[in-house]
Sequence to fold (544 residues):
Amino acid sequence: MRTTGEHLLRELAPQVLGAVVRRHGDFGAAEDAVQEALAAAAFQWPRTGVPENPRAWLIQVAARKLTDQIRSDSARRRRETKITLETPPEESVVAPPDEAAVQDDDALVLLFMCCHPALTRPSAIALTLRAVGGLTTAEIASAFLVPEATMAQRISRAKQSIKSSGVGFVLPKPGERDASLGAVLHVLYLIFNEGYAASSGSALQRVDLSSEAIRLARSAHELLPESGEVSGLLALMILTDARRPARSGPNGEIVPLDEQDRSLWDKEAIAEGVRLVTDAMTRGAVGSYLLQAAIAAVHDEAASAEDTDWAQIVALYGVLMRMSDNPMVALNHAVAVAMARGPREGLALLEKLDRDPRIKGHYRLDAVRAHLLERSGAITAALTCYEAAAEKTASLPERNYLLLKIARLRSD
Amino acid sequence: MKFMLMMHAPRGTGDYQINQWKPEEFRAHIQFMKDLNKGLRDAGELVGAEGLSPPGQARIVRSHGGGAPEVTDGPFAESKEFLVGYWIVDVENAERAYAIAGKASTAPGPGGKPLGIAIEVRQVMSAPPDSL
Fold:
């Protein structure tokens, strides 16, 4: 269970790391030192009470650990090579900058750094959760169900990649800002997805990655309140997560949107998500996360699947399709069209997708076709497609859902 | 994405007749596998790896409920190959899993020549549905 103290620690983690990196330069070593400082605080604070300025305390302890580390490294090197190295940097008396602007910048730089395109996405995810999210390697490892040693290597690899790519601890140049932000949002989105999908399983002991992603997106939103895409991603997560209590059954089985008990949806979360979307929509440019959030909002505001404003969803997917050439979007568009104008029109749109090599043979295309065939009364054809989808999916809950669907159709 | 890489050896030649190899050939083979595993561990990709004892010691256990389960030493499915070991790796995409399998397949045998071992690559079923 996380206590308030731990919560505070994790809020402070990126600020402290930012300050230490800014001062000492070496991101990898600074990150280790901050983890040690966090561990020290987690042990000490419950006994001695939270210090008056917890942030300064953490920076000071981390800086001391870093200096110790540099000293012992250089002592070792001296022993090994008998070369006298220059005196290690004096332990600096850390006067934490109080200006909120610097702290915010640090946290942002850190986020950009951890999600840098030079890293593989699994590495970026792991590093973000540790350096920005303040999670321990063990927690991250268990969230992804890999051995701790494996996760530790992944994180240390990520740090090496940052080092060798020569990224400085500065905000990306204006010209690179959009691409960098895109990478950050993608990483947060992947973390959310991992958690959202996994929470339907039996993994109660794992860190809740969805909540973690929402927390990270929330702080990104605080740092960049004007960005429509950041608002959009945060809203998309909140609006999707709001349905969590209804979207799986007692055995973790998938309950599709149209069968969910909507009274279980989190109304407060929906209100917050809708507010975020509305604000961002009126503010300026509309990007793909914001559009997806808008679609989620339309679903969340409907009392039932039938009451959903499908025409609006069709229109939103239309905009999304023009913005990004993604066959998954086209597939969702086809579903919305089927809901708005009948399964036949939806099926006609799927034929186009059959010719797209990026999605041809993907289980979701089979699953959607099966669903639309079922709705149009072509049960035998629907069964064939459900079977094809069940055979192809690599998601266990999804396969169970499809197999159950097949069994129900057969017994009718 | 997690994948299981299953290493199969041909049944007829019995584990590539590894007991006929020269010591240095055997050592090179073991070293290759050790290096491969170390590389995967260092890359943060290794979830687990094990070698299995030869199929001569394998047993088939079956129970239809009630009574003691039946334990027999075959017959096995009439496959031409059997499982000798496996890796579970956590990688960014299927291509990376194929690359690792491709590397494992080249483990050296007699004369240092790649054995061309058949590696079956299967995605581990997971909770997250994949998206594009």
In short: The interface with chain B takes residues 120-123, 126, 144-147, 149-157, 193-194, 196-198, 200-201, 203, 326-328, 358-359, 362, 364, 393-399 of chain A (CB under 8 Å). Residues 83-96, 199-205 of chain A have pLDDT under 50 and may be disordered. Chain A has 18 helices and no strands. Residues 54-81 of chain A form the longest helix (28 residues).
